[in-house]
Amino acid sequence: MNRYWFKPKRYGYGATPVTWEGWAVTGAAILIVLIASLLLPSDRATVAPAGWIAFTTIVVLTVVVFWIVSARKTDGARRWRWGNDHD
Q: How many domains in the chain?
């Protein structure tokens, strides 16, 4: 049985969490990006290039993994919607 965690948005592009699993994945992605940003020093001018590369890598990987998981667990195709579209 394949239970979907997300449903397509009614307007625009993307999906919305509809189960606790969807909300958990969304929350985890937000938390990872927040923690990564808090690990950077408060004085952004003193951050070494390696720090910025690490931060950017973490954010990009988090977004890509979240995108893949949400796409596979969404009920319907990913496309632009105008509100009256039906799959």
A: 1
